[in-house]
Design goal:
Number of helices: 1
Strand order of the largest sheet: 1-7-6-3-4
Radius of gyration: 14 Å
Order of helices and strands: EHEEEEEEE
Largest sheet: 5 strands, antiparallel
Shape: globular
Number of strands: 8
Helix content: under 10%
Length: 116
């Protein structure tokens, strides 16, 4: 799930989710790998985890430099803020892995490009 920068403050306030009960079958494996591929030539970006109380971590969990792909291991229902780096005042979007993408082995990939 991608959330626009304009909807980000209210969305982030809800915090990361947790699965209730004991998941079975395909939902039993809650691990995921979030990759951010930065297709831009001149900017870096960072993904910050948003905890269960809605607080965003100040230190980024991953930093993606120009023309690079970086990844972080996470879990389903976790929220991230994608921000410019190192000036982290600008939110690009919010990211939530709603369920494990089994067809890609749990790998969720975000491609970031500039609009022309």
């Amino acid at each position: 799930q991608l959330v626009s920068a304009s909807d980000f403050p209210s969305w982030a306030f809800s915090g990361s989710g947790r699965l209730r009960g004991r998941p079975t079958g395909l939902r039993a494996d809650q691990r995921a790998l979030l990759s951010v591929y930065n297709c831009c030539d001149d900017i870096s970006m960072a993904a910050h985890w948003i905890d269960w109380s809605g607080e965003e971590r100040t230190a980024p969990d991953l930093v993606s430099h120009p023309q690079r792909c970086d990844m972080v291991q996470t879990y389903t229902l976790h929220n991230f803020a994608l921000r410019l780096h190192p000036q982290q005042q600008v939110v690009l979007c919010g990211i939530r892995i709603t369920e494990r993408p089994h067809h890609t082995g749990g790998h969720a990939v975000i491609f970031v490009t500039k609009a022309k």
